[in-house]
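Quick one - first record:
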Amino acid sequence: MKFLLVGGGAREHAIAKNAAQYYEVHVAMPYKNPGIARLAQYKMVDILNPQEVADYCDEVSPDLVFIGSEESLFHGVSDEILKRGHVCIGAKKKAAEIERSKAFMRRLLEKNNIHGSLRFKTFTDTETALRYIDEYAGSIAIKPARQAGGKGVKVIADLQAYLQEEKKDAKKKHAEQIMQEHLSQDLEDQILIEERVEGVEYSLQCFTDGTAVVPLPLVQDHPHAFEEDIGPETGGMGAVSGRGILPFIENSEYRKSLEIMEQSVQSIRTETGETYCGVITGQFMLTDKWGPTIIEYYARLGDPEAVNVMNILENFDEVCEGYLKGSLAKVKPRIKDTATVVKCISPKGYPNERGMGTGKKLQIDFEKIHGLGAQVFFGSVYEDEGDLYTGGSRAVEIYAEADTIVKAGTIAEKATRYVSSDWKLFHRHDIGSQGLLDKRMRTAQLVRDVYQYRGHHGLIGRNIDWIPGIGKIET
């Protein structure tokens, strides 16, 4: 059986590695990923060009196509592949709008009364957004309305009255920056401003054919560049998963998260007229207002979260057969009983000055890394005459597993020593550490106590504001 994969990062490297256990793997990728090239037959194509990718599918005649890259989905690659008669795991362009447009996602949740709908406003121009910021004194998250790989997101807590004007200036500057960088240029909505929430984030990745929603284990991504969750947002600096469930999430919270995903998949079909067939990932936060709360949706596996789950999914072939035979509802993922940690190693300059870290030579001691029981997955790396060079984004992802997250984190941390360069590389030492896990546990319990109290008193999702001269306002 032939399996054709679209994409070229660490996520696709992990997918290709799993698929190669069962299938003859072919990959359409934008540059030569050294890890994928060793596993599969491949061709360098423009993965944003539907005709070019579909032509390669016609050439290979695969039994199944799997689209890893979100930008391919946004550009209608899945639509063209399906039009040519191939079976494809990848949402059509209209359905993938759930990730491409954060504004579309927020409206969908609000319109369909889906649990965890945050208050929000969208803006098509800077002037209107700035006027709103001038009048709004609360804590907010300011985002580009379009998915931009973690770029352009800023959360500003407006808690100190004496800094109110300074915080307002920071909000305005960030809104202007989003417009100047054209992060949402292919959408009508340019800026999304939503209420700020706090809590513990986690990802739920699911396979779906539009009816059945088949969940994978929960993973926690770490989007901030630096230790202790500070620094700019990135595409993800690493991720952890536990045995069975994340240690700071309860089973009832997991079930509620899956229910939100199922409702969302049904709502996409109602809203767009398209059956959602592919992968959908919910980026959740456990908050004091709602409990499980959707922050973003992805129309594909996460990166690095895919590296965690694809290494412990032991029946990927049965999932693929479920798509081919229309029997996905009967498939139950078989998951290896282990905890996992992924650490991403990036060149200095990532995420905001990627050009700085491009073209830097990498040295990797695979023998020592494998001797520790860890693995290397290639992200933004290319090969030239046998040497490896950075592409400016996350270069490699180190994967390790053990019977606890902390033990897996220790293995992954030791393995990072064997990736080096004359250029400065960095990664987060704290991912998978006991200290960070303890912090997650404390935060989760704190917000859990509050949202359960709110639930007991019928206050879940309700906003209560006090306006001087008017009094209490509930929404």
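second record:
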Amino acid sequence: MKKYLTSVTAMCLAAGGAHAGALDRTGQSIEVLFEQGRYAEFSLGYISPDVQGRNINAGLGAIGTASGDIGLSNFNFGAAYKADLNDTWSYALIVDQPFKAEVEYAAGTGYFAQGSNAQFDSYAVTALLQYNMPNGFSIYGGPRFQNSDASARIGFVSNYDVVADGDWGVGAVAGIAYERPEIALRVSLTYSSEIAHSNDVTETFSNGAVTFPGSVAEFETPQSVNLEFQTGIATDTLLFGGVRWVDWSDFDLSPERYVAATNQPLLSYVDDTITYRIGVGRRLSDTWSVAASIGYEENTGNLFTNLGPADGGESLNLAAIYTQGNMKITTGIRYLRIGDTTTAVSGNPGAEFNGNDAIALGVKIGYTF
């Protein structure tokens, strides 16, 4: 039952790349720590967003001019390895892309941001050591090494371009868990620290006519707390869920020349995000298991930048696991309704993004040695 206990939550996380909160893409899960024995996995997620807005500011052009679909389909990958040193100590290595975003405003639409685009990427390697106590409690922690880079073109700001080179930063992960396998119970609380970056930046205006190389953009990817639980509620049936808090209000990416020209950050968020998730998993046989869950994140009603027009939302997640011998294949699909959003230009409302959504697919292949 413990093997199933670990797998069922992963089913509804298989459709990676569809977390609503700001740049959040993986939820920074440490679930691999609770796999039995020596275990390795590889995952691939795909998200296809449909994000469209309309101009509401007469100073930026005709009211109602549509942006077209600015969401770009993209992939996320991940891998992890877990092993036991003895009956007391375990360790895990996790590779993922925790924060990511891509938007592109097509040219020729007449929309004020036409020809603009942006990309934010990150890659992280997390090393965890776990101490397992005989009373069901365990503690775990370790370092997280993260590389982040970004680029953007803002056509309506004097043809502004910026490239922030990749930079490595170091943070920490710490947590505590309690397990009772006889009733399929596990509760875990995990803290991930902020990670500071100092990226070398090159800013240009008017298609490179004026270039400002050699500056530095300093920012932090946010600290977060994950509370996750699962418990048996009937034979072969589990209730599971979680709450994730992310300190997005401290995130601020503000290249010097862009702020001087627009009086606003390139990308920032006013409030923190709290995402809730609850679901039910069911083992149908020794080979097949299924699960369904729903997620919710509150709409804050704040103004957002045009590079991040998403404010809360709801999700529906369906997943299944096929197990054969030591191998298990997890598949998932997620529908995400993106919360209605108003974006800002120089501190004033610029556009409304309403009725948007995304579809995500994921697959994970795991093997126990």
